[in-house]
Design a protein that fits this description.
single chain, alpha+beta, seven-stranded mixed sheet, five-stranded antiparallel sheet, 24 helices
Length: 639
């Protein structure tokens, strides 16, 4: 079929249009190719010339900035500081010993560090950088940088290192960091590359370890061009890492620091809690240690001094140690008896100084006896016989159940190391752990917080907060993570009859405020700040001997728990003085002073103390203020 002239003309136009499109596309492609060739041959000529001369591109990880830790008022507890170090890469260094020898002519090298670094390089991938010297001076870094061409594989670096500006004050809570070890790496199935960075720091104990992943952040990376001898020619590009999350704790630095000064050289501990929220305002163990020494590499001499000290400065006594609670446990036994209906507030027992259980005699602390004693007086006078007889009526199962309800025998959920659950024993426990049946004498001992019963100072504070409120107060140590508030846990009703709590609190009020109370001398005079409490003395030996007649480590522990103010409880405090003797003489005065410091949020007025005590308190306040100022000045110099 022949096409018409019009159809032929239309077809020619279409063919011409397609040809133009195709030709244009080919021309554009040729143009792009030409531009690319020009970019490669002209613009990147120098780069490829360097690469042709055996230069190459290395990728280096950039360690992230570790998250900082603050107290409840925003004061820094754990910070980061710039440090200088020298690293080596085995694949670039060539003869390791020769390079080390040249480096030693420029900077002072520790033989132990050199030996460690050489061993690490021989057993690590050849591309991995290994720190040869850490915390070197700026002058030393400068000398290494100037002589870089003669030091293949050697790189001077600026890094970040952890620093604890308040030194000993928070050591047992925050813990410390240290270089990643093989033991640390073994905990991870697939360790992150950042953990391979030379001398990278990781949390070892305390909050630093418990919040390691949040505090660590994520690494960045940079591409650098190095020549044939390993010298860095230039940085090609950089991607910064993500800093770790900051933590804010519930702790108060001023209160924590005061407690440290008030405990002095004693082997002791103290915990301060808000009874409504469970926020821990202070949690201090004495004596303490400087965590900065561990970050920088503690010497054998310094570590031995800490390890061999019989006051155990490395131990976090507030959560790690468990003590017989002594008479501070009597509130538990009393509430168990009230709940079981075997006693009422006015029922009495007769104390003649001891009771007979089988062939064994159990003594009251007052050998002459207390006579007829009701519930309030049993707490006020701390009569042991009252609780011996009550335990035989109520039984260990009811006592143990009440103890657990008040937080005993359960590990507190706080991010500290080696948190003990203590021990709230019952018949099943003894059968399972000791292979023996529970005896009546075991219940008698447990009734006054002796025998198998063990509690930590933090558990004692939790118990006191629950007694003060009747609610399931849970401890909170971290206030926020990365600016996000952590929830307040618990707070529900304990299920304890309010009348029973009222009767027990009445006894605790008498302990401190009654003329015959065992802690009368440690009362608070300010009407709106008065406190309730309970003394405790726990034996660490079986025989009855005066404390002054035995070595320090065989003396009784002194304990005291308290809450205040009476009408609207805000603060709970527990104090344990190891081998301190009597709770009323040693622990109660410390707890009262700590309580007032917490209530007044600073140095309390002398009018809050008994008039007969004000002269001594004035001298004590002046001494503590002087000691704190002197210590802060020394810490500033060390920083």
């Amino acid at each position: 079929m022949r096409r018409t002239p019009r159809e032929t003309a239309e077809s020619s136009r279409k063919i011409t249009r397609r040809g133009l499109l195709l030709g244009g596309s080919q021309l554009a492609f040729a143009g792009v190719l030409a531009l690319r060739m020009r970019h490669v041959q002209v613009d990147q000529a120098d780069e490829f010339r360097l690469l042709a001369e055996e230069n190459r591109i290395n990728i280096h990880l950039i360690p992230p900035s570790r998250g900082r830790i603050f107290d409840r008022e925003g004061r820094v507890i754990a910070d980061n500081e710039n440090t200088y170090r020298i690293t080596m890469r085995r694949e670039d260094a060539g003869d390791l010993e020769d390079t080390i020898g040249k480096l030693a002519q420029l900077v002072s090298l520790d033989p132990e560090d050199v030996s460690r670094a050489l061993d690490e390089m021989r057993h690590s991938p050849p591309f991995l950088q290994v720190a040869v010297a850490d915390r070197v001076s700026w002058d030393e870094i400068s000398r290494v940088a100037v002589n870089a061409p003669a030091l293949p594989g050697v790189t001077p670096e600026v890094g970040l290192s952890r620093v604890y500006p308040q030194h000993e004050t928070f050591a047992h809570v925050v813990g410390y960091v240290g270089p990643v070890s093989e033991r640390d790496l073994a905990r991870y199935e697939d360790p992150e590359p950042v953990l391979r960075i030379p001398r990278f720091q990781i949390g070892k104990v305390g909050i630093e370890a418990k919040f390691e992943e949040a505090l660590r952040g994520s690494a960045g990376a940079k591409r650098v061009e190095v020549n044939a001898v390993g010298r860095v020619m230039r940085e090609l590009d950089r991607r910064e890492g993500t800093a770790g999350a900051d933590l804010q704790l519930t702790l108060d630095s001023d209160l924590q620091d005061y407690i440290k000064a008030r405990l002095g050289p004693e082997s002791a501990s103290a915990v301060v809690m808000e009874v409504e929220t469970g926020d821990i305002l202070a949690i201090a163990s004495s004596p303490s240690y400087d965590p900065n020494k561990f970050v920088r590499g503690i010497s054998t001499k310094d570590y031995s001094a800490l390890r061999d000290n019989n006051h155990r400065p490395l131990a976090s006594k507030t959560v790690q140690d468990a003590y017989p609670p002594g008479s501070t446990f009597k509130m538990v036994t009393a509430l168990a008896g009230l709940a079981a209906g075997v006693i009422g507030p006015d029922d009495t027992a007769y104390c003649r100084g001891h009771i007979e259980v089988g062939s064994r005699r159990f003594h009251c602390w007052k050998r002459a006896g207390h006579g007829h004693v009701n519930l309030e007086n049993s707490l006020r006078d701390s009569c042991d016989v009252y609780y011996y007889e009550l335990a035989m009526k109520v039984g260990i199962e009811n006592i143990a159940a009440m103890g657990r309800k008040l937080g005993l025998g359960i590990a507190p959920d706080v991010p500290m190391s080696a948190v003990t659950p203590g021990l709230m024993p019952d018949k099943d426990w003894k059968r399972r752990e000791r292979g023996a049946e529970w005896l009546v004498g075991d219940s008698v001992n447990a009734s006054i917080g002796q025998g198998f019963v063990l509690t930590s100072p933090l558990q004692q504070a939790i118990m006191t907060a629950r007694l003060a409120t009747g609610r399931e107060i849970m401890p909170r140590l971290v206030r926020s993570i990365g600016g996000v508030q952590t929830p307040i846990e618990g707070g529900g009703d304990l299920g304890i009859d309010p009348r029973h709590l009222k009767w027990v609190r009445k006894g605790m009020i008498s302990v401190v405020n009654s003329p015959r109370g065992t802690a009368r001398s440690s009362r608070i005079e300010a009407d709106d700040m008065r406190m309730a409490g309970k003394t405790g003395t726990s034996q660490v030996r079986n025989r009855v001997v005066k404390n002054q007649d035995v070595p320090w480590e065989e003396r009784d522990h002194a304990l005291f728990v308290c809450y205040a103010p009476l009408d609207n409880p805000r603060i709970a405090v527990s104090v344990v003085i190891e081998h301190g003797g009597g709770g009323s003489a040693e622990a109660a005065p410390v707890a009262r002073d700590v309580m007032l410091q917490a209530l007044y949020k600073g140095t309390p007025p002398l009018e809050a103390y008994p008039s007969s005590d004000r002269g001594r308190i004035r001298e004590q306040q002046e001494r503590i203020a002087h000691e704190r100022a002197k210590r802060h000045e020394a810490e500033g110099r060390r920083a």
